[in-house]
Write a structure and sequence with these properties.
5 helices, mainly alpha, 115 residues
């Protein structure tokens, strides 16, 4: 299977940029009052990963980009940057991350009476 730059751009626009947002929206739209503690923690980790991803993207925008790069090269760079940011965000939550997931988890346990 070969992908043209335009095909990769379409793939990037439709799949990579909205993958984490869709995953989080699907999870949050479900009824969490009947969730197990493990499921609740996964939701909290998903939120922390999404939050971290948005922070990384905001930081990335602050870095000036070279204007001498062709549009096809820029599309490939953007695709791989997006993938790298998503992977870094997901991995950061596994090692304790920012601690945001744990705080949310404890609050949600209290709110749903799981203690």
């Amino acid at each position: 299977m070969s992908l043209t730059v335009d095909g990769l751009s379409t793939l990037y626009d439709t799949k990579a940029s909205s993958n984490s947002t869709n995953k989080l929206e699907d999870t949050l739209s479900s009824d969490l009052s009947k969730a197990t503690e493990k499921e609740l923690m996964e939701v909290c980790k998903d939120f922390e990963a999404y939050f971290t991803e948005q922070m990384f993207k905001a930081m990335q925008k602050m870095i000036p980009e070279s204007e001498s790069v062709s549009s096809s090269t820029r599309q490939l760079q953007d695709y791989y940057k997006e993938q790298m940011i998503q992977n870094m965000s997901e991995q950061s939550t596994e090692g304790g991350g920012l601690g945001l997931a744990q705080m949310l988890y404890e609050q949600m346990k209290r709110n749903y009476g799981l203690e």
